[in-house]
């Protein structure tokens, strides 16, 4: 049998012995020698590798440190926004402060102090975030209403219908805190406590938010916005809430235009809300021909708010008044359609959280 198989395949080329001439090999580099053929010491390669590794680790540490804790700032002017000529000489410096890790213990102590409040509202908000949401389905042959934008559909699917499903309200918040000198003392301390509680509650429920303090420097054509917590924030940023301070004035019209741009760029939520925390009408004087004080500042800020609301962003103002005076409420009412008066800073946290609760439930538009 074996002989028969050999005979049958005797003509198959795969059984033939073939020869190969091969190719000439050219050595361009020898191991353990340099380009000139001189021997390379194993110790020198080791030393070079160690130096390279040290350089890499040093640069990596420097990069991580600068990305985590270093102060950064960006300068804007009125050409960056659709604002009035009242702000033509103004520069706006937006600052991300260096994270102050020394405030970690103080922050933790404050969280412990208000833990019951944080837990209570976290649980309450989690229920609001599981609500029935009305959804619209387009391009139907029959439905509850006609969509004019679909008139070109050759299949005549002009109709839309609505259905209710459980989901999470797609909502984001920007807190713009008045950092003027009149906020000093009891008011700013109350706002700090409130912002800590809100941040913890929002973090527990994955609600997008940013906390920004704004002020205008008297005698200078300059505004400063301190982003204490950004929409996409590092966990350690929360310590900077305790650095909230009060000094100088405000130029709220200009600040609002920046706020609109900031929330549109950084917040992915469909519904966006700016919450203004203030204790009075905006006021700022510098070398400009026209002082930014009432009634000019009130009119300009009202115009800015009107434009932003028209663009689809809601604004709610919180007026920090005193028990025997409602001047702040009356001033802010000339600027914003929705104003809530707070005459007791001790109750501010509850008032603000209740407002947010209503916003989450869709009872405030």
What does this structure look like?
The chain is an alpha/beta fold and 365 residues long. The protein contains 9 helices and 11 strands. It has helices at 2-8, 42-69, 104-113, 115-128, 186-204, 252-266, 296-310, 327-333, 348-360, and strands spanning 72-77, 91-96, 131-140, 145-146, 159-167, 171-178, 208-217, 222-229, 271-278, 314-320, 339-342. An 8-stranded mixed beta sheet has the order 1-2-8-7-6-9-10-11, sandwiched between helices. Strands 3-5-4 form a 3-stranded antiparallel beta sheet, with no helix packed on it. The relative contact order is 0.12.
Mean pLDDT: 85
How far from one another are the termini? Answer: 94 Å
- Give the strand content: 15-25%
Q: Can you summarize the main beta sheet?
A: 8 strands, mixed
**In which order are the strands of the major sheet placed?**
1-2-8-7-6-9-10-11
Helix content bin = 25-40%
Order of helices and strands: HHEEHHEEEEHEEHEHEHEH
Number of DSSP strand runs: 11
Number of helices: 9
Radius of gyration: 33 Å
Overall shape: it is extended
pLDDT < 50 runs, ≥5 residues: none
Would you tell me the structural class of the helices and strands?
A: alpha/beta
């Amino acid at each position: 049998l074996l002989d028969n198989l050999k005979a049958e395949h005797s003509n198959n080329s795969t059984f033939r012995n073939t020869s190969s001439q091969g190719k000439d090999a050219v050595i361009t580099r020898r191991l353990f020698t340099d380009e000139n053929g001189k021997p390379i010491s194993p110790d020198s390669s080791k030393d070079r590798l160690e130096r390279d590794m040290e350089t890499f680790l040093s640069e990596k540490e420097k990069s991580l440190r600068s990305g985590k804790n270093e102060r950064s700032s960006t300068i804007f002017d009125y050409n960056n926004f659709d604002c009035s000529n009242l702000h033509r000489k103004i520069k706006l410096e937006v600052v991300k402060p260096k994270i102050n890790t020394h405030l970690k213990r103080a922050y933790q102590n404050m969280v412990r102090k208000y833990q019951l409040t944080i837990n209570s509202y976290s649980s309450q908000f989690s229920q609001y975030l599981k609500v029935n949401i009305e959804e619209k389905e387009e391009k139907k042959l029959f439905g509850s209403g006609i969509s004019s934008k679909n008139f070109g559909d050759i299949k005549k699917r002009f109709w839309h219908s609505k259905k209710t499903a459980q989901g999470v309200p797609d909502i984001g918040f920007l807190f713009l805190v008045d950092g003027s000198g009149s906020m000093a003392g009891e008011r700013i301390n109350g706002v700090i406590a409130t912002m800590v509680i809100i941040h913890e509650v929002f973090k527990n429920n994955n609600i997008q938010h940013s906390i920004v303090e704004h002020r205008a420097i008297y005698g200078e054509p300059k505004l400063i916005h301190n982003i204490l917590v950004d929409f996409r924030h590092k966990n350690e940023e929360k310590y900077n809430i305790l650095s909230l301070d009060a000094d100088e004035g405000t130029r709220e019209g200009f600040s609002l235009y920046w706020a609109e741009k900031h929330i549109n760029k950084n917040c992915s939520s469909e519904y966006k809300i700016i919450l203004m925390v203030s204790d009075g009408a905006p006021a700022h004087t510098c070398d400009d021909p026209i002082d930014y004080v009432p009634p000019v500042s009130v009119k300009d800020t009202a115009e800015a708010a009107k434009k932003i609301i028209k663009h689809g962003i809601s604004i709610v103002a919180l007026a920090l008044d005193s028990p025997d005076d409602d001047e702040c409420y009356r001033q802010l009412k000339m600027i914003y359609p929705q104003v809530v008066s707070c005459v007791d800073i001790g109750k501010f946290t509850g008032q603000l959280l209740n407002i947010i609760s209503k916003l989450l439930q869709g009872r405030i538009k």
